[in-house]
Sequence to fold (357 residues):
Amino acid sequence: MPRILDRLILGTFIRLFLGFAVGAPVLFILGDATENLDGYLDRGIPLGDVALSYVYLYPQFLSWTFPIAALLATVFTIHPLTTHREIMAMKSGGISFHRLVFPLLAMGVVLTGVGLALAEAAPRANQVAVEIRGERARATAFRSNFVYVTDTGESLTGRRLNVGDGRILGVTLQELSGGPAGLVRHVDAEDAVWEEGRGWTFRNGFTREIYPDRTEVTFQFSSARFPGIGERPEELLESYRDEDEMTYAELTQFGNRLLRSGGDVGRTFTKRAQRLAIPAAALVIILFGAPLATSSKRGGAAFGIGLSLATTILYIMLFRVSGALGYTGTLDPRVAAWLPNALFLAAGLVLMQRVRT
Fold:
């Protein structure tokens, strides 16, 4: 008997979830098109390219809808069973409410995994959409008079960086502290050129090496490579890709570079933490929505819609407020990203304890 109920509940939940999850991104697309379509067309972007860009943005929109779709599917699966007294009949047959919702919680774990995969795939698709729309800032193709701290902790200074030809003019590379052998190296070169697969080649310069005993060795070179810098030309720009175009690993790398350079990392690290928190919200929302949907109040679909709408608005409000606090550094980025989930999880556990089993 429980297996039959599991199939019934899972079948209903999956049908509802797929319907909401597939259809909801269309609302995001319509909203964006209503607001920005005139601007796209005014910039000379063909209508077909605009439509194609929305195809590439679909994974991003889909990942955003997972928690909402999970909530709607949960409410419209559990509430009808309550109003038709089917849950009461199941309890009479010895099946507790906790056992009844177990398949939904298991599906929540699956949806979290799918959401994590979407969160990693969406940034690549977002990059393509941005390129199709021509929204990549042209002004960021170069950078003048900059200082950059590399992943290995060396200071890179350049008079001008040209991303197009992968070249830095008037370049200096200096270790900020001695390496394992206590050696400090200072490199000055006329320019440095990026070669794919080989890294940066410094040309027409000299190297000054200072040893722990204060011995100095200086030599000139026409061409040389140094292991202290592995960043690509576009990674040296002051303005990098938007956070929505970076994977979790890229957000980590970019945030660490900002941190070493003294930049503000609140937004970057909050966005990184949200890459895990948003997919996990599907499981948390199911745990919260299932006992809430057992209300015996009549109202059918109207009650389900009202409950889902109120919960969605509350979650989005908490998500926005805590995210803003994380961006500004008022809250730790991980706390800011996970706070809505933590509050809903706590409320869900309390509701689950209060449900008559």
